[in-house]
Amino acid sequence: MNTAPHAATPDPIDAVRGLLADAGVLARHLREVLAQLTGEPVELDELIRRTAVARRTVEDLLAAIGTDLETTGSAHRLSAQARERYRESFALDELGTTAPSGAEQLALMREFVETGPRPAAALDHVTATPETALRRAEWLRDNYDLRGANLLCLGDHDLTSLALGLVVPSVSVTVVDLDERILQHIDAVAAERGFDVRTLHTDLRFAVPSAVEAWADLVFTDPPYTPEGIGLFAARAAECMAGPNSRLLVAYGYSTRTPALGHKVQQELLRLGMVFEAILPQFHRYFGAQAIGSASDLYVCQPTAHTRKLALRQVPGIYTHGPQSVEAVEATASPEFLGAIGERLGSPVSSLREPGWSKPIRRQPQPPVYDLRSDPGPWLARMLLAGNADRVAFLVDNNHPDITSERAQRALSELVGAKYQLRFHRSTPDSKHALVVADLVEPDSVAGYLLQRAHGKLGNVWREALIAHVDPELTKREAKERVAALAPVPADLDLRLIDLPRHRIADLLTVTG
Predict the structure, then answer these.
(1) For residue 400, which of 378, 369, 383 has the smallest C-alpha distance?
(2) What sign for the dihedral angle of Cα 493, 408, 510, 446?
(3) 6-27 pLDDT tens trace
(4) Structural fold of domain 12-94
(5) What is the pTM of this model?
(6) For burial by CB atoms within 10 Å, which of 175, 180, 228, 365 has the most?
């Protein structure tokens, strides 16, 4: 007699769950198909019409349901014993039951906006209305499965991340922005309200933080409304998108008087291999931006197989105003200008180097001088974090926010003091500019160890720093546990120091000693 155990019969609901997992944020459409199958028997053609899901996808889903499906002629529905299981397993009763935000949510959103930082004209900030931020969050909630999704905001002056926290409290959002003020405001509100929002710093002209590369299921951005701005932000979004089921949502508007500009911007998206799934007219409203009617459209873009492979053309000018605008072009430094820098530095300077902190600044035979004349504010601190040269200098505007007062100079010096000693030379090499010279100090502290390894994973670097500078007898496990207990924001341990907002770097260095 054969006594071998029989293999367990596969449960169709597991196969369905696998299909939904593969669909990612697009699983909502499959859930809508399942919801239709919990009612009266429905013909395949009608099922496709009701849900707008491709026939092949519907057929794959019906095949996965298998023995849980009742078929009468060409009509289908879930079997009586399976319906309740599917309703519970896939939250089918939640579909179509969401309501618009109420007065309390709108009042909170207005408070978030009013207490936030003022718009920065040089960064093309135009504030969206609180109603718009909530509308964005509601649209994302009603069109995608956000449970377990990775949602990325590339720039978030409009505080869409906080609106998502109000509308979908369970959603996890990452914000990447250049403006330190915005990052600090979002961190403060998220901590107070218990929103699952993390913030990272970068300038998209140089790179995206490594933590969000090929990571996001949904990317939302309201970028500068120049072709260069749209092209750059969309290209960075493509680097961040996790796969073919990811989507890019772009806010963009143009005046009906200048359709050629709208055509040029749309070409930038098409150049990246994006497909327009939808364009929702006048979806966003703003305080200002009257040249485009204080409104913009919502573009829903799907990547193609070529999107990630297409080359990114980086351009320094992407804004419409200020020193970083498309029209602003820096003059080449004259020999006399370079000579004056070299005289102050005590070393000949043949050229100025382009900014960027995606990689460490290595030790070099001659002190490098970086051209930060277009720095909107955050570059200088980031370049100091990236630097490991024995001596390095930075040419900035005389009105740079980190050097215009003794208090500002002291704050920057304290931030990097365990790594660099700074000297500020105002009105050098001319009356419009200043030279900041940084000399490396001996890394005899945990803070110095971290600052000299700003591109490493913070948790690992901090662990090694404790062993090197606090107690060489510590095991790696013991050091790791001590780091976990000390970290102001435990989630930051999986990130790089160079990508953290400045206020969290300062808090971190305070506890390291």
Answers:
(1) 378
(2) positive
(3) 556 789 999 999 999 999 999 9
(4) Arc Repressor Mutant, subunit A (1.10.10)
(5) 0.91
(6) 175
